[in-house]
Amino acid sequence: MISVSIVIPLYNKGPHISRTIQSVLNQTEQNFEIIVVDGQSTDEGPKIVKSFEDPRIFFFEQVGSGVSSARNEGISHSRSDFVAFLDADDEWMPDHLETLLRLREAYPEAGAYTTAYLVKYPNFQVKMASFHAIPGKPWEGLLPSYFKSAAFGSPPVWTSVVGIPKRVLTEMRGFNTDAWWGEDTDLWGRIALKYPIAFSWDGMGIYHTEASNRACNRTEPVEENIFVRTAKEALEAGEIPDAMQADLREYVAKKQIETAWFNIRAKRADLARTVLKKCVTRELIRKKYWALFWAYVPSSAYELASTTRQISMDILYRAQEDYTNIRKPRKI
């Protein structure tokens, strides 16, 4: 019996896929299969995957379109009852799979298992994700409140560090293919509405935000985050326990604010304003009205401000690097 099936969607990730696969092959847990689903890449990515001479690696040409479809197809090919996900430009620490399997054994009632992760930025700085409402190291266990953690900090569940029992994936009908953005957090949210989420500080992954061809860099308008609709329907149907409702509503507000920023960047301030007017929050008021301010500013002014900020940050990062190099002791 294979302990875990690892699903990797691939699309024009040639510069990164070798590092990603190698991080799986370096795991302390070796009873796995790697399922790569390629969405008609036009670079050398498929060739690199096929160059690995390991019988545990399986390569499939994608039938559908989009990353959600690729992940669902990977799930359909999996032979394990436990599926882990990894994006083609991210990587794992060597004990990641061992940690997920330990969590699963310790907390069989959970619907998803996740670990902490590091974020590597375009300036190549690496920092721990900004988690909220999670007990500090070396704690591991069931999250006190998934939605509180997700509303006020970095996502406690992230695509490249999560493992999910196949029965739960079947129950949830996998990833929703109707949206190009937020389809992953929609699945984590739907699971968290019904199951606790297990978390560990061990076995981290690395989220490479500096990688090329990232889907989240697209600038297309979004009328509504897909999980917002899911949450509203569950609230209206009376399916949410009283203890969860306040945290869930704040998480919905966060998703609406994020959607507004997507629309501002896509030069659809009208959509941003519409989304924000529906946003009801007690804890994220400042973030809501900051987004609303920019939703009334001309797009040209927003672009100028963004460019100026980016230039300033680049200068600051270079200065920090120069200072660090100057402070390094010289070898005699």
Q: Quote the distance from N terminus to C terminus.
A: 56 Å
Largest sheet: 5 strands, mixed
Percentage of residues assigned to helices: 40-55%
CATH class of the largest domain: Alpha Beta
- Structure annotation, total helices: 12
Category from helices, strands and their pairing: alpha/beta
CATH topology of the largest domain: the name is: Spore Coat Polysaccharide Biosynthesis Protein SpsA, Chain A
Order of helices and strands: EHEHEHEEHEEEHEHHEHHHHH
Looking at the overall shape, the CATH architecture of the largest domain is Alpha-Beta Complex
Q: Tell me the fraction of residues in β-strands, as a range.
A: 15-25%
Radius of gyration (Å): 21 Å
Mean pLDDT: 92
Query: How many runs of DSSP E, i.e. beta strands?
Result: 10
Q: Name the CATH superfamily assignment of the largest domain.
A: Spore Coat Polysaccharide Biosynthesis Protein SpsA, Chain A
| Strand order in the largest sheet | 3-2-1-4-9
Give the domain tally. 2
Shape descriptor: globular
Unreliable residue stretches:
none
